[in-house]
Design goal:
Elements: E1 2-7, E2 12-18, E3 21-28, H1 33-43, E4 49-54, H2 60-67, E5 71-74, E6 84-85, H3 95-107, E7 112-118, E8 121-127, E9 132-140, H4 142-151, H5 172-198, E10 202-207, H6 211-215, E11 223-224, H7 228-240
Parallel strand pairs: 1-4, 4-5, 6-9, 7-10, 10-11
Antiparallel strand pairs: 1-2, 2-3, 7-8, 8-9
Length: 242
């Protein structure tokens, strides 16, 4: 059994895999790390390998805690990857994007795959039909856009995402919701069209915390998979065991 731990910008995600299948996944705040890890090894004593991925600098104590229970691989730019990485600055490529590219490589090994991760930021990552990661884009996520409007103006309120019924807002709040929700939806659809025009038989996978929020709004055909990053991390763990 494998344990993968994804330390993100706001939450830590934990997933347990058995024979390539997720048998457990949950998120917690960073302050609960020790209790969560201890509980997982009590619940799944057959875990013998773990991978830790972090979007920021990993605290050594987190690695040391997990290492008390099993072998640990910390995902870094020196980790082995199954795809050809053609990113111009591989040392700056986020570990989350490396995991998504890995999942795309295994999910669609001989096809063109665009992965869209709708989280704190919206990332676009492209793996072509030669098994080559060629890059993508990074854009502000939903909540980041709401916060930016609130923090960088004198009067606009801080709002939570909400369903919009018309793209024409008839109040300040409705106009802000339209600007964010309609704006991001149009952006994602537009980016997908750009990639479809360049890459034939493109598979588009939508993942991340806001994936379900957008899945029903996009006009383009996509596959929504909220566990895609975790699956990529498990593939990387297996690949680095060799």
């Amino acid at each position: 059994m494998n344990l993968v731990i994804d330390i993100g910008n706001t939450l830590i995600k934990y997933a347990v895999f058995e024979n390539g299948n997720i048998v457990y996944d949950q998120s917690s705040e960073s302050g609960l790390f020790l209790s969560k890890v201890k509980g997982l090894f009590e619940q799944y004593p057959k875990i013998n390998h773990a991978l830790i991925s972090s979007v920021g600098k990993l605290d050594r104590k987190e690695r040391d805690i997990v290492a008390l229970f099993c072998k640990v691989h910390v995902l870094t730019h020196d980790s082995k990857v199954p795809f050809k990485n053609s990113y111009a600055t591989p040392q700056t490529l986020g570990m989350d994007r490396v995991a998504l590219a890995t999942a795309a490589f295994y999910h669609n090994p001989r096809g063109n795959t665009l992965v869209i991760d709708a989280g704190t930021c919206i990332t676009y990552d492209m793996v072509n039909n030669f098994g080559e990661y060629i890059g993508g884009a990074i854009s502000p996520g939903i909540r980041m856009r709401y916060k930016a409007m609130h923090n960088q103006t004198a009067a606009l309120p801080l709002l939570e995402p909400e369903e919009i019924w018309d793209f024409i807002g008839n109040s300040t709040a409705a106009s802000m919701h339209s600007g964010v929700i309609n704006g991001v939806t149009q952006e994602v659809d537009g980016v997908i069209e750009q990639y479809r025009n360049r890459f034939q038989h493109l598979t588009v996978i939508l993942t991340g915390g806001d994936a379900q929020f957008f899945a029903k709004r996009l006009k383009n055909t996509i596959f929504a998979n909220s566990k895609f990053l975790l699956e990529g991390l498990n593939c990387l763990l297996e690949y680095n065991k060799r």
